[in-house]
Write a structure and sequence with these properties.
Elements: E1 3-5, E2 15-17, E3 21-22, E4 29-38, H1 41-47, E5 57-58, E6 62-70, E7 82-85, H2 95-98, H3 107-110, E8 117-119, E9 122-126, E10 136-140, E11 144-146, H4 153-159, H5 162-173, E12 181-185, H6 189-200, E13 205-209, H7 213-221, E14 226-228, H8 233-241, E15 246-251, H9 256-265, E16 266-274, H10 288-294, E17 297-300, H11 308-320, E18 330-335, H12 339-348, E19 353-357
């Protein structure tokens, strides 16, 4: 079986091998034939060590495909079903799930430390307990979410992570108010989805902030009212808000420097939403006086900040109705054999989302 493997944390290229096998199939598990998978920035963050992940591992967590086998005790899905991969399934039993915060369930993270692949040289992990840069993957049945027949695999893959994360940040976490002002810092696939979410909620001004010109141009097509480079943000704040700051600012980069800029760009009493996944040793500095005096709300948004199954259904309904554009998020397509080209497209910022067709 073919798969793209990172041998050691810190390497910047993947090796596509044909000697990989799935392991762990049994009761409560399903085997999925991956048909399409998106390249998410979190995959790159795991490769370079920003996000913790044992190696060697197969990146990828934003995938969709068909179930080829089900283990004993599996109900709700069967052989031949079309599914997307949920990398953070809810157990339904932990305190977070019982509180209605299933996006904070840790059950899925426990899978990240168990190998679900092997090679002649030893065990291979799947990123976030999945690993979709491969032809087949074995995961818990809860990771396989059925999708309707009219949803293409590439669209379903995006819904499995980036779209759900970005839309949910605006709709669930921030609950953007109609007529408000919004700035989105970082306009890849997740940032563009946050822009679409803010537009759906009726934001009056949506300022897209990104250093890459092509991404700024794309943001305007997806609903941003203005797009600026990072060094133009201060001027936009002055022009659009008379210097007060934006009602909502979304940080979709995952760095303390941009989070600090986002905090300073948020008005007093406004809301800063942290969407980007950053490193454990990258600390955001805030002083106690400004926290008290400015009364700015800081809201982290994990996987869209809501029930992911409901978020999937909402994204599909909005896509069907033409309220959100998901096809245009896919700016590049490559076969698995050209996965390193996809990585270059992400690192240079030329791609919003690259679909790897398997």
């Amino acid at each position: 079986m073919r798969a793209a493997v990172l041998h050691e944390i810190g390497q910047d290229k993947l090796e596509v091998l044909d000697d990989v096998e799935t392991v762990g199939f049994g009761p409560g598990k399903v085997k999925i034939r991956i048909r399409a998978t998106g390249l998410c920035h979190s995959d790159v963050s795991a490769m370079n060590g920003v996000l913790p992940q044992p190696a060697p591992f197969i990146p990828g967590h934003e995938g969709a495909g068909e179930i080829v086998d089900v283990g004993d005790g599996v109900s709700g899905v069967g052989q031949g079903d079309r599914v997307l991969v949920c990398w953070l399934p809810a157990c339904g039993q932990c305190p977070a799930c019982k509180r209605g915060q299933s996006q904070l369930c840790l059950a899925g993270f426990m899978n990240a430390g168990t190998p679900n692949f092997k090679r002649p040289g030893g065990d291979v992990f799947g990123f976030a307990g999945t690993g979709t840069f491969t032809e087949e993957v074995v995961v818990d049945a809860g990771c396989a979410v059925p999708i309707p027949d009219d949803v293409p695999f590439d669209i379903a893959a995006l819904i499995g992570c980036g779209v759900t994360t970005g839309l949910g940040a605006a709709i669930n976490t921030a609950d953007v108010k109609a007529g408000s002002s919004v700035a989105v810092i970082g306009c890849g696939g997740v940032g563009i989805s946050a822009i679409q979410g803010a537009r759906l909620k009726g934001a009056a001004q949506i300022i897209a902030v990104d250093p890459v010109a092509s991404r700024r141009e794309a943001a305007l097509r997806f609903g941003a009212t203005e797009a600026v480079s990072p060094d133009e943000l201060a001027d936009a704040k002055q022009r659009v808000t008379a210097g007060e700051g934006f009602d909502y600012v979304f940080e979709v980069v995952g760095k303390s420097a941009t989070a600090r800029t986002a905090y300073e760009t948020t008005r007093r009493g406004g809301t800063l939403v942290i969407v980007g996944a950053g490193a454990m040793d990258d600390n955001l500095q805030l002083n106690m006086f400004e926290l008290f005096f400015d009364e700015k709300k800081i809201l982290p948004s994990m996987y869209g900040g809501g029930d992911v199954l409901q978020s999937y259904e909402r994204a599909i309904a909005l896509w069907r109705a033409g309220r959100i554009d998901l096809e245009s998020l896919i700016t590049h397509r490559v076969p698995l054999s050209e996965i390193n080209e996809a990585l270059d497209q992400m690192r240079t910022g030329v791609a919003l989302r690259t679909c790897i067709e398997i």
